[in-house]
Amino acid sequence: MKKKLNLAPVFFVGPHVILFAVFVLLPTIYGIYASFTKWNLMNDPVWVGLDNYKTILFDSGSTFHTQFQNGLKNTLIFVVLSVPLLIIIPLMIAVALEHKKVKMKNLIQSILYIPGLISISAAALIWLLIFNKQLGITGNIFGSQIAWPTHQPYAWLIIIVITIWGGVGGNMIIYRASISGVAPDLYESAELDGAGAIRRFTSITLPSIRFPLIYTFVMTTAGAFNVFGQPLMMTDGGPQQSTHVLMMYIRQLAFGNGESIAGMASAMAVLLGLIILVISALQYYVMNRNAA
Amino acid sequence: MDNRPALNGQGASKKGLGISISKYISYFFLISLCLIWVIPVIFGVSTSFRSQTEVVSSGFRLFPEQWILENYVKILDNTSTAPILRWLMNSLFIATLHTFLVVVIISITGYGYSRMKFKGRDTLFFTLLGISFFPGVVNLIPSYKIIDALGWVNTSWAMIIPGLAGMGNIFLVRQFMNGIPRELDESATVDGASDFRIYASVILPLMKPILIVCGLFSFTGSWNDFLWPVIVFTDVDKMPVTAGLLLLQDIYGNYRMIGQLMGSAILAIIPTMLLFLFAQKYFVQSINLNSGIKG
Fold first, then answer.
1. Chain B closest CA to A155's CA: distance in Å?
2. Which residue of chain A comes nearest to B105, CA vs CA?
3. Could you tell me which of B290, B265, B235 has the C-alpha nearest to residue A186?
4. Are B101 and B93 in contact (CB under 8 A)?
5. What structural domains does chain A harbor?
6. Distance (Å) from the alpha carbon of B146 to chain A's nearest alpha carbon
7. Which residues make beta-bridge pairs with A37?
């Protein structure tokens, strides 16, 4: 009996391992390989070594170089503008919601979460109307005749607004669940010792939700580097390419009109991927060390 | 003797004052946010019930002067250039089947990684988890190539199957399952129950909350996915609604048919809203990352 090979684990874990191999592992390896090739998605990739990377990083005469630089710059602007707000606002909401005298917590939470359920393509239609200078709220109530999507810094502003509106819900739920898990007697004894609200927040709440904070910070940042839908729908990369983010260039090169330049796009994707990995690792390392 | 109650009383009233001030600050903050958050949705909904002349002429109003259904009638009639009903059905099929398969896969796989004993189990799990942290941008283009090779371009399978390979939900499920007492399945094993039996009749019923939460994430994730469908679908009839809405800006002449544009957006958000209302109560209890991973 005992010598018989136990096949049960294969039935339980096997199907997912196969899916993982086909739809995650294989494409990842192939994506890295493709970044060293000249490839148009149709024919077989032709090995060109580091050529794509050299062009993207150093050939200042090439459009790929300028596209990468511009895309990366705009992506970084988005990350720097959106991530702090996507951490701080949900944290403030969660703290306010955990106030013991505040009622209707679940209703408030639902209202703030609802935009997170709306796809970017639907949300953008609504917000573009709101920011429409003739028809929307901004034009009619505030009397502003600004053409938001086609003028800076307003183009960034509306991209950030729709991002925050749709994005706070997820982190808020994580923080709220985490804060409600903190033992109440910690707060009670701190209160007896005369610790004020700010003191209680910095010395009890923050340390207790250290892990969720690191987790959301790393995930939110990585997500922000992948930004695509908001600038595509709200500004289509404009004005003058100033909101054209890296993912938009990658998609354009690989799947846009005309000949696909998938090898070059793959190299850009690998570079973006490396940036995300390095930044995630740095965040994790620094925050974990500082908090310990 | 006289001092003590007085001091206590003073302390208590000070503390009470602090709490009520912070209560009002909290309320003010939360209610203003709620208003800002909900007004765009109300404005979108009400605009979808407005006539074009009212939208253009009457200035800003939160609610229409006259509620009309004409926009929705036109949306549903326009099956040639903007077949939104078709798109909605496509999305519904994709998201429902995807969610069902996700729940099956994650519960089975989670059982494997949490309750079964086999050599290399944890090594395998953490290796896959580590690989899955590699940013998805890199596999985007080859994923398209694989979908193409499978003949899935412009089909729902392109959106239903690849997403099943993710590790995030399996991680959550394994975490949750590790919290279920081992005695439960040990006693079932002694009684001679097979792994499949234990999975189906002991563990699965206990998994309801986490599976509902993961199911909701999968459904909304699949319903709202944008980048991937924009790449995979070129055929207007086969698209899910997110990709379809991208076309609408042009089809409805960049806000020249505003009511219909808004109506389409509203139709596209109803299903995820309904699902959220249904699954809401499972939310806060299930996602407790503190107790889950801290140790």
1. 17
2. A16
3. B290
4. no
5. 18-290 (1.10.3720.10)
6. 8
7. A47
| CB-based contact A149:A238 (threshold 8 Å) | yes
A105 to chain B, minimum CA–CA distance in Å?
A: 10
B143 token code pair: 């994923």
Closest residue by Cα to residue A181 from B291, B143, B103: B291
Q: B138 to chain A: which residues are within 8 Å by CB?
A: 27-28, 31-32, 266, 269-270, 273
Residue A77 sits at the chain B interface (C-beta within 8 Å): no
> Using CA atoms, how far apart are residues A18 and A26, in angstroms rounded to an integer?
11
- Say if the ipTM goes beyond 0.90: no
Position B262 scores a pLDDT of: 92
CA distances, A236 to each of A152, A179, A188, A240 (Å): 13, 39, 52, 10
Q: B260 near B249, Cβ under 8 Å?
A: no
Instruction: Write down the residue that tokens 């846009």 correspond to.
Output: A256
Q: How far apart are CA B120 and CA B124, in angstroms?
A: 6
Q: What is the pLDDT of residues B136-154, one digit of tens each?
A: 899 999 999 999 999 999 9
The radius of gyration of chain B from alpha carbons, rounded to an integer in Å, stands at 26
Cα–Cα distance, B269 to B42 (Å, whole number):
13
Q: What are phi and psi of A41, to 5 degrees?
A: 75, -25
Cβ B290 vs Cβ A208: under 8 Å? yes
Distances (CA, A) of A69 to A60, A78, A147, A149, B8: 10, 14, 27, 22, 64
CB-CB under 8 Å, B29 with A96: yes
* Identity of the residue in B33, B195, B246 whose CB atom sits nearest the CB atom of A93: B33
- The beta-carbon neighbor of A265 closest among B112, B141, B262 is B141
Span B279-283, average pLDDT = 75
Neighbours of B243 (CB within 10 A): 26
